[in-house]
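Tokens in:
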């Protein structure tokens, strides 16, 4: 995947998360949606990870269709959203890289003043 396309997808994911936060409010967002990470985009499918089966099932049933609509508004070629349990039961909310070169960062702004980047190893 080209860096330009990867950047477009990352920006779209950040906007989708922002819209969800606006739609549901801060408390519900932090309770249910904050731990979502973008695992990959393959063909017409976005794959989102959550750390537990419970969260996956809850988000799928309550927000699955909303996620699909938001993805299609951002990138019309994304027609499906698959919500899965992250490998090892962890979402990489502090950043990482998928096999397709996408960053898995949750795009949450840091409020503690520390600078974090997905391309740097944790210190």
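Residues out:
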């Amino acid at each position: 995947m080209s860096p330009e396309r990867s950047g477009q997808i990352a920006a779209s994911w950040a906007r989708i998360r922002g819209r969800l936060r606006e739609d549901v409010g801060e408390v519900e967002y932090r309770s249910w949606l904050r731990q979502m990470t973008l695992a990959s985009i393959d063909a017409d499918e976005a794959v989102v990870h959550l750390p537990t089966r419970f969260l996956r099932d809850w988000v799928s049933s309550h927000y699955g269709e909303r996620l699909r609509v938001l993805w299609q508004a951002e990138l019309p070629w994304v027609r499906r959203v698959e919500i899965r349990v992250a490998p090892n039961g962890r979402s990489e909310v502090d950043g990482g890289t998928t096999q397709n070169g996408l960053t898995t960062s949750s795009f949450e702004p840091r409020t503690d003043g520390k600078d974090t980047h997905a391309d740097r190893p944790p210190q």
